[in-house]
Structures are given as structure tokens and as C-alpha cells.
Write a structure and sequence with these properties.
The protein has 280 residues and is mainly beta. The chain has one domain (2-269). The chain is 9% helix and 49% strand. It has helices at 2-19, 165-170; strands at 48-57, 60-74, 77-86, 96-105, 111-120, 123-132, 137-143, 150-155, 183-190, 193-210, 214-223, 238-242, 249-256, 259-269.
């Protein structure tokens, strides 16, 4: 059970957030954007997005925790960070302390350094990945902790993003050319593997309700789910993204093997543009 919750944190929070932005990515490229040299016109340093996670178990909705995404200025790079925490009231069941950091080029939005330092119950993992985008290689320093981590070299299939950088890269992609029902592939390098995934675009909605935050104009997506410990065969996830220049997820809904999960936008600040997707 606890193993499933640990996977939940990754697959229901981080992966849907990145997949939500991927509607026009096709075989590593997309109309109007270069996968190896992308300019940014969507976010800026100072942006902060906070998401609240609810877990439904036996018809009871539990307020489980939060994930906070921040963007910092780091000279020629943006420093992206994500901090996942369970609330103290939930930690009797399962405690999460997850830290993700990515340093990406302001010129290309590609990562040069990615750090994952997590604690989920009794499970701990440290993984520091140094990318050489020019030579399409990466070195992963991975272990239970930083002191126990050992290096391994990898060859990459073209320009490669990590779990954080892909989110911000794909926010710069236009969505106007997408057809309803279209499925599109995306790939990331995560946990020493390249993940090929698909996402389906389900159209635009004018009145998406977000608990405690009001109603929004959104784009709706359904990321591919893989049956196993977390999801059952036939499960479908829904991701709702703000229909404005900011392109941020406002709501994620998903069944899981033992209940269901909602991830809702709790607060935001430092957006580059006015949040015009909000209806009321």
C-alpha cells in the first residue's frame, strides 16, 4: 500500500503536470518550436505555483499534502525547484519529503543539472544527473543517499529534458494546431531511463470548477496511464490547463488502484501574464 502511495506522488503529481503542456510535441519536435533551442516567453523568475493533493479512500477525502514549484534566476540559467510534502495530519499513515531541482539554460531551456533528493516513508533516493547536451550524454550519480551514490554514464537520444525542465519547455508550445482526440508522444530522462509517453487532447472547456479557487477556462488532456501498482487497466486521468498565456494546470483528477486523487491549484504568484483564464 505504501509503495503505491510513493508512486502516486510521482505519477499523479509530477508526470501529469508535465504532460499537460505537451499537446503539439511530435517525435521530439513541434510546429513553431525547436526542441534543442527554445526561447522562453511564458514564465519568469519569481513564479510560484502551489498545488494541494487530496486522496479519496473509502469515500473519505483526505487532505494529503502540497507540491510547490518555484523559478529562480541563476545567471545564465533558471533554477527550477519542486518541493513535495505531506501534511502532518497525514504523516501517521505515510510521510513524504521530496526535493527536485533542475538548472536549465535560459537560451535553450535544456537542463545541465538535475537533482532528485527524496524520502517517502522508509524509501530514500538521491540522483544527481549532469547533462552534456552537445554530446548527447549524461552522468547519473545515484544511491540511497548522497554519500552512497555511484556514477553511471548514459547516451541520450537527442536533446533531452528532465521531469522539471520539460514542464517549462512545453509551456512555450502553441496549442492552436491540436485536433480534439489527437494523441501525441513525449519523452523524458528520469531515474536512469527514457520514458516514452502519450497524451490525448480532449478539447476546451469554459467552466472548470477548482475547489476553493473558482472557475476557469481550460484545455483538457488525458495522459497515458500504465497499468500496475498505481493504476488499473482502463483508468483515465484528466488534466485541466489554464486557457491563457500562462498555461498552468489548475486541476488533475485520477482514479488509482485504491481510491482516487485530486490535485488542485492552491495559490500562485509571480506569473508573467495576467491570469485571464479565471472566470470567477
Amino acid at each position: 500500500m505504501k509503495y503505491r502511495i510513493a508512486n502516486l506522488w510521482i505519477f499523479v503529481v509530477f508526470l501529469p503536470l508535465l504532460l499537460a503542456f505537451s499537446p503539439t510535441v511530435n517525435q521530439g519536435s513541434s510546429p513553431g518550436i525547436e526542441p534543442c533551442n527554445t526561447s522562453n516567453d511564458v514564465f519568469e523568475a519569481g513564479e510560484e505555483l502551489v498545488y494541494k493533493i487530496y486522496y479519496n479512500w473509502n469515500f473519505v477525502w483526505l487532505s494529503a499534502g502540497e507540491v510547490v514549484f518555484r523559478v529562480y534566476d541563476d545567471g545564465d540559467d533558471f533554477h527550477l525547484s519542486a518541493r513535495g510534502r505531506t501534511y502532518s495530519s497525514y504523516e501517521w499513515f505515510f510521510e513524504v519529503r521530496d526535493n527536485y531541482d533542475s538548472y536549465i539554460s535560459k537560451e535553450t531551456l535544456l537542463p545541465r543539472l538535475s537533482i532528485r533528493d527524496i524520502k517517502e516513508g522508509n524509501y530514500e533516493r538521491y540522483d544527481k544527473v549532469t547533462f552534456d547536451q552537445a554530446n548527447q550524454t549524461a552522468v547519473s550519480l545515484k544511491g540511497r543517499s548522497r554519500s552512497e551514490a555511484t556514477p553511471e554514464n548514459f547516451n541520450l537520444d537527442g536533446c533531452m529534458h528532465d521531469i522539471l525542465s520539460i514542464m517549462y519547455y512545453l509551456r512555450n508550445v502553441e496549442v492552436s494546431s491540436l485536433r480534439t482526440g489527437q494523441e501525441v508522444p513525449v519523452k523524458i530522462f528520469f531515474d536512469r531511463e527514457t520514458y516514452p509517453l502519450k497524451v490525448k487532447y480532449l478539447g476546451a472547456e469554459d467552466n472548470t470548477k477548482v475547489k476553493g479557487m473558482g472557475r476557469y477556462k481550460t484545455y483538457k488532456f488525458s495522459p497515458q496511464l500504465i497499468a500496475g501498482e498505481v493504476f488499473k487497466e482502463g483508468d483515465e486521468m484528466s488534466v485541466f490547463v489554464s486557457r491563457d498565456k500562462n498555461k498552468i494546470p489548475v486541476l488533475i483528477e485520477s482514479p488509482v488502484s485504491v481510491g482516487s486523487v485530486k490535485v488542485v491549484l492552491k495559490s500562485y504568484k509571480g506569473l508573467k501574464y495576467d491570469f485571464t483564464a479565471k472566470v470567477n
